[in-house]
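User: I'll paste a sequence; please echo it back and then give the predicted structure.

Assistant: Echoing your sequence first, then the prediction.
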Amino acid sequence: MNRLLPDFDKKMFIKNKIPLMILAVSYFLLFEPQNSSSEPGPEYGDAIVVASSGDARTFVPILASDSASSDICGLIFNGLVKYDKNINLVGDLAESWDIEDEGKTIIFHLRKGVRWHDGRPFTSRDVEYTYKKLIDPNVRTPYSGEYERVKDFVIIDDHTIKIIYKEPFAPALSSWGIPVMPEHILRNEDLNKTKFSRSPIGTGPYKFKSWKAGQKIELVSNHDYFEGRPYIDRYIYKIIPDEATTFLELQTQGVDMSLLTPLQFTRQTDNKVFKRHYNKFKYQSFGFTYMGYNLSDPRFQDVRIRRAINYAVNKEEIIDAIFFGLARITTGPFIPDSWAYNEAVIPAPYDPVEAKRLLNEAGWIDADGDGW
């Protein structure tokens, strides 16, 4: 499996697939407002306008597989756990948890006093409903795999649940970061067709207000949010499919935050306008670019062919020419700083001679000298 990962964010185990990967970096601009008040510190109010190249597809969180839908669902809904700024798992709707039976049992203690945006209380039944829909074969969710490993789901009381796994499962705890859905609204709904997909109710820091397809999505702050009212009152997700138009909006301050291309980050935003009005950030992402082989094709079933292609690709040249140096080679889908990264796997170097040798060994020989 060949992968290119810029310094950015993804998951998958690789075994005997001869990985070729480059890890990406995410980079974005965030508008820096000028504080006219003499008193320092945050104040409630105003709005943030975020640019997106694509529109959302659905606000049913367990069906949301595109980035736009996931971004919005992340503001409207909560999971039982979440990652903090240091990528440590912390409680979200779960206040705490106990892990028993050598990792096969998790007991979640849920927060009390949490309410859905319509005022109804959040309880264990909402978590149970979400779990049942994740494993329902009639629900078109891409996330069912991690929950089919659950042997038993037990409600102990309104704010305590026990989850028992068939066998130890490393991502078990983190998998419960999946957004929880309201059972009282959706219990009789077909999630594949429900109107909830365009008018969601969650427990999160922002409430849904409106969605003009292809134009914008608007959220308003949840003043009763269990972690405190958000300081920004409105979140406006502006749909701008064209990359050049987005950059013009940044220049004229029509949007407050946007992702940048490597060219924009390195060459086009290092000037007075952007330095005055924006903060510029880059961070490691879990995203990667890769070449994946169709192993049902007999030509790719020969490991020598896969190794030859790996040797034939100049990954450093791709990093320099396409990512302007804002990327690095990786040998798996985890960032090199992750505990899951396997440092024992050494990336294959760029070696056309070795690539040709392997191809010849596998029977791919230029017999007539035409270069093919």
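The longest helix spans residues 124-134. The two ends are 23 Å apart (CA to CA).
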